[in-house]
Design brief:
Largest sheet: 6 strands, mixed
Radius of gyration: 17 Å
CATH topology: Nucleotidyltransferase, domain 5
Helix content: 10-25%
Distance between the termini: 55 Å
Low-confidence stretches: 1-27
Number of domains: 1
Strand content: 25-35%
Oligomer: single chain
Number of strands: 6
Order of helices and strands: EEEHHEHEHE
CATH class: Alpha Beta
Shape: globular
CATH superfamily: ATPase, nucleotide binding domain
């Protein structure tokens, strides 16, 4: 028996309104961001890989209940790495931004990660080579506040 398969130029995991891994490209978005949110009532930090049309492709959490800036920065870096690891390879390479919602501590966390912070700017910082090495997110990817 001679079986032939042809996948053409299709992406095996297109971003779509039907969810991760869907074969349909209907309603898809080509924008994928990692949203990092502090959830104080649950004592955790959550990272979600979300497309512009609201489809979630990854989720990671880390327990967090410290006021220590170093602990906050470490938790942010950890959930970014875990969230990125949840994304299949083609999607990790298409992350177009990181958005932080840390209860007003976004710049503090980024400075503790030794990133150059631009307060008052829509883009607070950019992923550097050190953060890329730890998370897999491409250097130069913009980081903004939600």
């Amino acid at each position: 028996m001679d079986l032939k398969f042809s996948f053409g130029a299709s992406n095996p995991l297109p971003l779509s309104a039907e969810g991760a891994g869907s074969a349909s490209a209907v309603g898809g978005s080509s924008v994928l961001e990692l949203h990092v949110t502090l959830v104080p009532e649950e004592s955790l930090i959550r990272c979600s890989g979300v497309s512009l049309d609201g489809v979630s492709y990854a989720s990671a959490t880390k327990q967090f209940s410290s006021e220590n800036p170093a602990a906050l920065a470490a938790a942010v870096r950890s959930v970014l790495a875990r969230g990125g690891a949840e994304l299949p390879e083609p999607l990790l390479g298409s992350v177009s931004g990181v958005a932080l919602s840390l209860g007003g501590r976004e710049a503090e966390a980024l400075r503790t990660l030794e990133l150059a912070v631009s307060p008052g700017s829509p883009v607070l910082a950019q992923v550097d080579e050190a953060l890329q090495a730890r998370t897999g997110i491409a250097a130069g990817t913009p980081i903004r506040a939600l």
